[in-house]
Give the backbone structure.
Amino acid sequence: MPTLGLKFRFPRNARVDDLLDACGAMVREAVGWAIENRKTATHTIVQELYAVFRRRFPELHSAWAQKSARTAAAIVHAWGRRRRRGREARERPEIRKTWVYVDKQTFRWDWDGTYLTVRIAVRPWDEDPIVLRFRPHGKYKRLVEQWHRGDLDYGEPTLSRDTLIIPLKLPEAAVYASREVWGIDSNERSLDLYSLPQGVGATLDTSYVACVNAEHDKRVRRGCRGKQNPKARAQIQRRHGRRRRARTLEFWHRVALGLVWMALVGEGALVLERLRGLKGRLAQAPKRLRRRLLNHWSIRTFHAILRHKARVYGVPRTEVDPRDTSRTCPVCGEKDLRGRMRLECPSCGLSMNRHLLAAWNIAKRAQIPPGGRGGAGEGRALFGRLQSPRWGQGVMGAPGRPLPVPGANASGTQGEAQVTA
Ligand SMILES: [Zn+2]
């Protein structure tokens, strides 16, 4: 079930700080114990430490001891996962930011159409809970309203010293059986699309992200000019960094929504290249290019957003191995293409833009080989792989559009939202 975290910031206050001091101490102790004893189940940690925690913080609601143990388990799990994948070298998890799960017993909320008021009980039968008041952004109002009506459920909120995150559980949309495939090639300044079986190519200019990044770098340089104090420099960097992230995220969200809309209209599937191992593949690249792509390209963020949206809207999606996609002829399989921006195939004479050629190859890789499973004409044969649970999003549901799509209907009534790619 896809979730969407509603994240609210609030000014630091003493009561939340006190609560998190206590919970932070419990979390740290539980993490230490879990690592030493190689136990990672929440239940085991609770069994071992619950009594200790209760004795040390007798005034707290018992749920906080439980949830501190659960938080510790989550931290250890995440650390273990990173370690198994070789992305973590540290001997034990580092807790940079204190946070804790909030038990639903201690969590009350109320929505008046504008403000979301949250009450968090610190002690048992708390007459004086922590009260936080938020005004959700307009784009989240619809979701909060659905939550309020009881149409959406929510997971366990998490609390830090200045944020509260409430995960709303969105319904899983039924995935339709697709009639076309859109291969998407991710480049530094564009997304290039190619559809099969139609054979239509399109390019989306995404150089906006590069512009935002360049502008950001310039501002940081200008802001830091003449400043020697590293703290002041870090502060400038942080401030601009937050803005840069917000702007690029907003942009990627819009692009992803546009692509999802496009897929829904044509009942298409989206095929991305698998980006795992990007770091390794860039190892040979020049240092400046490498740094730019790894720090600022944010393409993996885009892929994550697209994955999430595809899931929410029930668009079939898969990822394929990108190896050689930009130097293989999609028509005859020749691997020795000529040219730079425009590639030419010496065997069959194909000549096309290299990004579109890569997108074509990506779309092609999502197909099953001719004569494979399905086999009832090209259109039907396309999606064997997409329909297998390993590749897509579980078993495909009945064909049909899961959600009303704004603007999908050409004769739609006035006032409907229009999405443009
Ligand atoms: Zn060829």
Observations:
- The CA atoms of residues 199 and 408 lie 22 Å apart.
- DSSP finds twelve helices and 15 strands in the chain.
- The pocket of zinc ion is lined by residues 329, 331-332, 334, 345, 347-348, 350 (CB under 6 Å).
- The first strand starts at residue 3 and ends at 9.
